[in-house]
Amino acid sequence: MTGKPLARSLPRIVVIHGPNLNLLGTREPEIYGRTSLQKIDEDLRARGTELGLTVETFQSNHEGAIVDKVQQLRGVASGLIVNAGGLTHTSVSLRDAIAAVQMPVVEVHLSNLYKREAFRHHSFLAPVCTGQIAGLGAIGYLLALEALAEILSQRQPPVTGRPLVRSSSPSKSRVATSSKKGAARK
Question: What does the alpha-carbon distance between residue 31 and residue 48 come to, in Å, rounded to a whole number?
């Protein structure tokens, strides 16, 4: 039997948005910006295509639904971007689910948690994430996606015929991540 070799599927990145992020663009725009969640998701999918990645997004206001989604990713996704909203500071269950999936995870926050109320300064998720991007607004999600693309490119060769595209623009290729707990850099 002859035929073409089976092409590998594109790496799958899942983006999870937590409670209240469905209100982006209208909820406290002075803190969270004016970009809607729909626009963030559209931009992520478009950039994912450029990077040779499949991007799937999910939003829920329910902790259990988010934990279930994270658990479902084990063994089927290549990476995870998570903005858990307020669950960042309260959910041991979400922390444990992220620790169990065994993939690179980037924690994203639109606002700089360390310029806000003291209770927001602690992340239960940071110790089990590959890195954290905070305080850069909606672009933080794109930076997280580029970081995951780079991490994945170091682990496996690109899909045949679809090279990993890296932006030549300095503003798009800089990745602001940290593997240190609670690190936010200017």
Answer: 26
| Strand order from edge to edge, sheet including 54-59 | 54-59, 12-17, 79-83, 105-109, 131-134
Q: How are the residues of the chain apportioned to helix, strand and coil, as percentages rounded to the nearest 5?
A: 40, 15, 45
Domain layout of the chain by residue ranges: 12-173
Amino acid at 15: V
pTM (predicted TM-score): 0.79
- Domain 12-173 is of which CATH architecture? 3-Layer(aba) Sandwich (3.40)
Active site residues: 32, 109
Q: What sign for the dihedral angle of Cα 157, 57, 50, 149?
A: negative
- Least confident range from 16-25, 28-37, 87-96: namely 28-37
Among the listed residues 114, 105, 99, 95, the one whose alpha carbon sits nearest the alpha carbon of residue 177? 105
pLDDT tens digits, one per residue of 101-137? 999 999 999 999 888 888 788 999 999 999 999 999 9
Q: How far apart are the first and last CA of the chain?
A: 58
pLDDT band at 168 (very low <50, low <70, confident <90, very high): very low
